[in-house]
Amino acid sequence: xxxxxxxxxxxxxxxxxxxxxxxxxxxxxxxxxxxxxxxxxxxxxxxxxxxxxxxxxxxxxxxxxxxxxxxxxxxxxxxxxxxxxxxxxxxxxxxxxxxxxxxxxxxxxxx
Length: 111
Description:
Elements: H1 3-25, H2 29-34, H3 40-69, H4 93-110
């Protein structure tokens, strides 16, 4: 994400916080900090937040496009990987079979 879009996103968040304060508490933080709603600096802040909102539209559109391209796989679709981080896991099926045979032989000898 470019620096321009990051700045736009920060301004949109500032605008959202300001609108939340207006909605919940009837308090306009931008107007309070910069000399009222009609002050030049307040109007510049409002304009920048508005432009940032317009710049954020492609960010949302790009996010929706990315979600459409995501492929989801479940274990039903793919064979699970039982590999270890250090390498392939050893196959112990033969060792287990030999132990089972030894135990069966011992059981049959004792009976």
